[in-house]
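Priority: medium. Attachment 1 of 2:
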């Protein structure tokens, strides 16, 4: 009988983990040398696996979006089956995230602001992520029977972005709770009279 031992992550995974941590805690401008040191890899590994820092940043964003989309689903599932409660549960989840000591805001907003090259591959990833979140919100709004699910999803996404930004700049104001109150108004919209 043989026993298997867990293998240590390879250079690619170590680079991804280090970049995911450092770009969130120190911003997208974190230096290549800091990334290599944190990951304990040679510079060659960065170029072999990602083609350079831009490729690494894009892959970190792609990986993070999958994790954050899962967090949206978990927050909604924890809230139950009612679409209204599920949508409000998103803001409850944001409140929990903002209260974490390592909270540094929205990774995607920070990336879009820091990546000044409009053709950086990270921008396409952040746009696609926001589109998927909006579609998730639209799905729940349709189940709720909202009269304007597309517009309302855009409004909710704006409230989410605002709560995440204010969570860094003004956390003591409880921005997720304020955003949740505004979201209730969006959810309670009634069809216009014919």
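Attachment 2 of 2:
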């Amino acid at each position: 009988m043989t026993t298997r031992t867990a293998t240590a992550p390879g250079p690619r995974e170590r680079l991804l983990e280090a970049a995911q941590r450092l770009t969130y805690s120190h911003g997208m401008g974190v230096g290549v040398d800091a990334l290599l040191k944190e990951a304990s890899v040679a510079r060659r590994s960065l170029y072999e696996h990602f083609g350079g820092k831009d490729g690494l940043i894009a892959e970190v964003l792609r990986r993070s979006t999958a994790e954050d989309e899962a967090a949206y689903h978990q927050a909604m599932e924890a809230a139950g089956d009612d679409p209204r409660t599920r949508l409000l549960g998103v803001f409850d989840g944001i409140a929990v995230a903002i209260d974490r000591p390592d909270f540094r805001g929205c990774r995607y907003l920070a990336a879009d602001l820091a990546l000044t090259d409009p053709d950086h591959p990270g921008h396409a990833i952040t746009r696609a992520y926001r589109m998927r979140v909006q579609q998730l919100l639209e799905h729940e709004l349709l189940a709720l029977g909202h009269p304007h699910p597309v517009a309302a999803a855009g409004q909710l996404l704006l409230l989410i972005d605002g709560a995440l930004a204010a969570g860094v700049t003004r956390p003591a104001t409880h921005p997720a709770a304020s955003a949740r109150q505004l979201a209730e108004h969006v959810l309670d919209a009634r069809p216009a009279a014919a």
